Fold this sequence. Notes:
- It is a single chain.
- This protein has strands at 9-11, 33-35, 57-59, 81-83, 105-107, 129-131, 148-150.
- It is mainly β.
- Strands 1-2-3-4-5-6-7 form a 7-stranded parallel beta sheet, with no helix packed on it.
- The termini are far apart.
Amino acid sequence: RPAHPNLNAIFLRGNSLTSVSENLFSELTNLEWIDLGDNNLSNITENLFSSLINLRYVNLKHNNLSSVPESLFSGLTNLDAIVLAGNNLDSISVNLFSGLTNLQMISLDGDSLSSVPEDLFSGLSSLQMIGLEGNDLSCKPTVRSDIKLYIDNHDLSVCLD
């Protein structure tokens, strides 16, 4: 039995963490909110959140992540918000957000993205806001007209491929 089975939020922001154990959260199945922002994480394992079916908010901003595993958020259908801003992400897997039908907000601001996969945001029926400011995008991703898209250069042409 986990020590704190009813724990629903964990704040580990600003602790200079360089790594987290793959099973750190495995028994905390009631977690809804995880804040790992403002650390020095350079790597995240693909199963870090896999048992957290109630997870609604993940903050990984301002770390040293250059990539995130394609399956990091797989099966986390209750996720409302993902913050990956202020990392060194230079590419994102087209399937990173697949199946996250409750996802409302994605922040990729201040990363190192020059493009995003064409279908990255498709199928996200609840999505309301995408932050892409502070990247060096060569074109503007295609998104539904009701989604607020935050980018630096509104004159960018729409990505065609």
